[in-house]
Amino acid sequence: MGSAPAISARNLDLVFQTRDGPVHALSDISLDIHRGEFVSFIGPSGCGKTTFLRVVADLEQPTGGSVTVNGVSPAEARRARAYGYVFQAAGLYPWRSIAGNVRLPLEIMGYSRAEQAERVARVLELVELTGFEKKFPWQLSGGMQQRASIARALAFDADILLMDEPFGALDEIVRDRLNEELLRLWEKTGKTIGFVTHSIPEAVYLSTRIVVMSPRPGRVTDVIDSPLPRERPLEIRDSPEFLKVAHRVREGLRAGHSYD
Amino acid sequence: MGWVAFALIFWVAAWLANIRLANGRWSNRQAVRIAVPLLFGITLLVLWEGLVRGLEVSPVILPAPSRVAQTFAASTETLWGDFRQTVLKGALSGFAIGCSAAFLTAIIIDRSAFLTAGLLPVGNFVAALPIVGIAPILVSWFGFDWQSKAAVVVVMVFFPMLVNTVQGLRETDAMQRDLMRTYAAGYVQTLLKLRLPAALPFVFNGLKIATTLALIGAIVAEYFGSPTRGMGFRISTGVGALAIDLVWAEIAVAAMAGTAFYGAVAWIERRATFWHPSQRSGSR
Amino acid sequence: MRGSLVQVLTVLAAIVGLWYLAVAPMNIRVALDLAERSGAQVVPATAAERQARPAWQLMLANPGLIAQAYRLDRPRLPTPDQVGRELWKTTGRMALRGRAWSKRSLIYHGWVTLRSTFWGFLLGTAAGILIAVAIVYSRVADMSLMPWAIISQTVPIVALAPMIIVVSAQLGIQGRALPKAIISAYLCYFPVLVGMVKGLRSPAPSQLDLLRTYDATGLQSFFKLRVPASIPYLFTSLKVGIAAALVGTIVGELPTGAISGLGARILIGDQFGTPLAIWAALAAAAILAGGLVTVLDIAQRLTLRRMGMA
Description:
The structure holds three protein chains of three kinds. Chain A is α/β, with parallel strands linked by helices. Chain A has two domains: 7-82 and 159-257, Rossmann fold (3-Layer(aba) Sandwich); 90-157, no CATH class. Chain A has eight helices and nine strands. In chain A, the strands form two sheets. Chain A has a six-stranded mixed β-sheet, with helices on both faces. In chain A, α6 links the parallel β6 (160-164) and β7 (192-197). The longest helix of chain A has 18 residues, at 172-189. The model of chain A has no long low-confidence stretch (mean pLDDT 88). Chain B is an all-alpha fold. Chain B folds into two domains: 2-57; 72-280, Orthogonal Bundle (MetI-like fold), CATH 1.10.3720.10. Chain B is built from twelve helices and no strands. Chain B has helices at 2-23, 30-54, 65-74, 76-109, 113-127, 135-142, 146-169, 174-182, 187-222, 231-240, 244-272, 277-280. Chain C folds into two domains: 2-74, no CATH class; 106-306, Orthogonal Bundle (MetI-like fold). Chain C is elongated. The interface between B and C is large, with 64 and 63 residues.
């Protein structure tokens, strides 16, 4: 495959048939995400950013256009376990311990016992949850739960990570820490990340590329390549480059909103 | 009159003690949680004993607890035989057959949205019917021995258990199902790893309802014919012969059996669904 | 509910279909015995020989006599239409002839059962609500009553039923209405109690705090917050409660000696060997249960709509 894009969308269309008539969730989306990129999708509710991620994950079926993931269809990619998906809520199973939750995909995918244990220990260390293996989800804070759910998505060998507002429900301070950790994780693992968010600073801070979207119909209004270096301390958010990118994102969002 | 006065004084004293215990510093201790209801129960017994003795109530109408206890001790062999016939043979086997049949049926019909949509309202309706009434029919089909009692129990527990299990299997939220889909998990994997664990609180709810129904069914069915043993048989003949103290002894057995049965299911529930908010609250 | 009408009807049709299919194997032996007695050719010829054969073999061996299994006077399993006709004979037709209150009419017996159920329901609901209020407001009541309320339900009331009836007769209470009502109240109060405790405790702490900032009295917060919040729970448990009350009444009518009420009809049908009478009484009880739950369901919808909750 070499330099073929990890995710490639061509003229993607998706219309939901609802009781109040058709809703145009995605309209003519064409986009390539390359290996090792960190791409954020930002836009107001209803702009289709989550829907796009779900189409990539084969959780929704497009009504037009095409998508490939690692050069094959989303369904094939899903069956090949090509990606890990992190939802907005941690969605850990309350009847499983933290280690048990991280082990879940490994059990389903038929890893050996020894390998399960090894991988669980490794990813829990990666998200700094070593020592919490035997705790149950409801005994942990929201931020720790979300870290566990990221560990769950990292546990198997998917090279794509799809994250749907993973930190949306957390408070600002926890979110900052997790953002920093996520960058470090991305650096270490070299995964391709698709990241949906509501937050402009979060998108600018994390991404190598930012896709700005607008609603009715859901479409891409701007794609911004970030000039920021890969090494990003939190303070970079006060730099002029950062503010410039943030400004452009804000402009893009405003343009998409101009007529409503 | 001394007995009545004693009973009333005991009542007041116990009530005051309970108020102090319940509002006191240690009210969250396990020991107090057990002591308060226990004291309440003892008070009821003392009141009963005192009133029966003091007012000289005829034992044919209401025997005193002490008298019931004597009868109990004197007829343990009869009681044990009746317990085996009614609870161990009739109620428990019917409970096991009915609940497992309902559980398997629920898993099968759950695969079809059409069947589920059709069976849930019907099951809910049937669960509200006075099914005990079929006891005479099943006794005439399956004979006088415990098999017919088990059959009554099977029919009585089937629908509550079915409805609860089907509802439980639908309890997973969309996100949890999506997660299993991103893992490309098969039907069996999703069932075992997600839907059955998520359904457990509902399954146990069904099982708990079924425990009380099982005893009711097994006892009522004996009113319509049984061999010369069994709790229902003993109660109906005992009432006829005015052997009320033996009847109360049987009721005590039924109460203990029912409580133990329910308690056992609740105990397993607490261990199996420790993670569920209803089991967590208060103990954390 | 409305959306699943087709599914429900399909399931009901399937149940009736299975019922009809089951009638032949259930009744074939009786049918063959009768046919043998009336001189027809039956394979195998004697009842003793037939006893050793499974029902399906008998059906295959005597295809011409299967129809008889659907026309027995005293079937082990009657067909749905036999039950329906018996039910009509003892209700609608008697009413048309002006004999609705005859002792043979299920309308009369249904009414007796309904009356006791109603009193038991009223008594049980009142007890359930009162105990629930006590439990919500008093820690002592919560700690001492709740465990016993649960234990009271694990005691099979049916064990008490015959005794309650005999003892109340000993005490000189006329008729069975009161003991029956007590039994049905005993079964009915628990779901109401549990539902009301849940409902009265359902307001969030923030809602209670809001009333505290108004310096509302205990009564005010009870009537303005806790009671309205508990209404949906109340109706849900009333529906369970009335079904339980009906079960209690019928159980109270089962012990020997009862003469009126649907439970007594079941008992008498059993003693006189008239299965159709049992089935008709069961069908009447089912209709009664369905009717009562439906009435409460409608009341629930109307109330909740007026309260803006549905």
